[in-house]
Automatic annotation (TrEMBL):
Species annotation: Latimeria chalumnae (Coelacanth)
Protein name: G-protein coupled receptors family 1 profile domain-containing protein
Gene3D superfamilies: Rhodopsin 7-helix transmembrane proteins
Positions of transmembrane segments: 20-43, 55-75, 95-113, 134-154, 174-197, 248-266, 286-304
Keyword Magnesium: no
Compartments where located: Cell membrane
GO biological process assignments: cellular response to hormone stimulus
Stretches assigned to coiled coil: none
Sorted UniProt keywords: Cell membrane, Membrane, Receptor, Transmembrane, Transmembrane helix
GO CC terms in record: plasma membrane
Domain G-protein coupled receptors family 1 profile, residue spans: 34-301
One matching Pfam family: 7tm_1
Classification via InterPro entries: GPCR_Rhodpsn, GPCR_Rhodpsn_7TM
Length: 359
């Protein structure tokens, strides 16, 4: 029999489950609409540009997050974590959930690498974009494959569930698993993005400083020989279209960092420290927030590629200050515990005796 506190806990867990389910459905719908619009826009205006290939692959990766990660989680939580599809399907679904997240991260990295090449080394041979995209998809599949060996169907409280089995082993197994997930999905892409954009911003700052110095020198020499001399300041090493793409890429990267960093920080804290009820609630929220990056990406693309005058004015107003001078010159598991299921699939199930039916 449940005590009064157990009854309150059960009500809280059901409320959390409903809230998470509603949030997941909203994110799924937004992601599908946004990424399908981006795909349609790119295909209908296809010019076989490198940017078209990059963002078409990014939209495809974000659609994988919607269909493989979000949709499977919605179905799972809708059945209150009861697994009816068998052990093989359990393992395949867990691989698919991470595959979409890793693919999305990889595509953002490929976009950043291409922008770095275009800004820092514009005279070098172009990167083989299509081959890089194929490589990114292949890496996503390879890096997500360990999920097939970590999850399996387990009998728990007279029901079958698709659970992480590492909790049956010494704690260091789980810690290694968390480190692997955080490094593969977030920290390696994060380091690459920081490196590439540091080089991009340094190059922009250096070349713009040189441009201003040359302009000032030209004005001084010109006025000395001809008082009516004026130098056109509109020449810049960055074309307007390239500036727009650079800003769009920077916003996508910032969204990736903002959505992912808090989640993985607390995930590491939970793996190597104590796990409080507050950590559980925070991780539940951040676990949903971390996949929202794939929801935001298409709307960032649509925002920067809109033909509506009001949005174009807003885009110009919202220019990132780090590249303002250039423009003026040119004119991804939530930790699962009692009532939450594993959205991100890296953290294992934590089931307590006081809430046997939570999962």
């Amino acid at each position: 029999n449940l005590t009064f506190n157990d009854s309150k806990e059960s009500e809280r867990l059901q409320y959390n489950r409903r809230s998470r389910l509603i949030s997941l459905v909203v994110l799924f719908v937004m992601s599908m609409v946004g990424n399908l619009l981006v795909t349609l826009k790119i295909v209908l205006n296809w010019r076989n540009r490198r940017v078209d290939v990059l963002f078409l692959n990014l939209a495809a990766a974000d659609l994988c997050v919607a269909l493989m990660t979000l949709l499977s989680q919605i179905i799972w939580e809708g059945f209150q974590d009861v697994w009816l599809a068998g052990d093989v399907t359990c393992r395949l679904v867990k691989v698919a959930q991470i595959f979409g997240l890793v693919a999305s991260s990889n595509m953002i990295v490929v976009v950043a690498l291409e922008r770095q090449r275009a800004i820092v080394s514009p005279l070098h041979l172009p990167l083989p974009i299509r081959k890089l995209c194929v490589f990114a998809w292949g890496c996503a599949l390879l890096l997500s494959s360990p999920q097939a060996f970590v999850f399996k169907v387990t009998q728990l409280n007279s029901t079958k569930q698709c659970l992480n089995t590492l909790m049956e082993l010494p704690k260091w197994h789980f810690q290694v698993y968390i480190i692997y997930g955080a490094v593969v999905v977030f920290f390696i892409p994060f380091c690459i993005l920081c490196f590439t954009y540091s080089r991009i911003l340094w190059t922009i700052w250096s070349k713009e400083s040189q441009t201003r110095a040359d302009s000032n020198l030209g004005k001084t020499l010109g006025r000395a020989s001809n008082p009516d001399f004026s130098l056109n300041p509109t020449n810049s090493f960055l074309p307007k279209a390239k500036v727009k793409t650079l800003k769009m890429t920077l916003v996508i990267i910032l969204c990736f960092i903002v959505c992912g960093l808090p989640y993985f920080v607390i995930e590491m804290k939970c793996a190597f420290g104590s796990f409080s009820e507050l950590d559980e609630e925070v991780t539940a929220v951040l676990g949903i927030f971390v996949v929202s990056n794939s929801v935001v990406n298409p709307f960032v693309y649509l925002f920067f590629n809109s033909k509506y005058t009001c949005l174009q004015k807003l885009e110009r107003t919202a220019c990132c200050s780090c590249i303002k001078g250039s423009k003026e010159s040119s004119g991804r598991s939530t930790v699962v515990s009692s009532g939450r299921t594993d959205l991100f699939s890296f953290s294992s199930e934590r089931v307590t005796a006081t809430t046997p039916n939570a999962e």
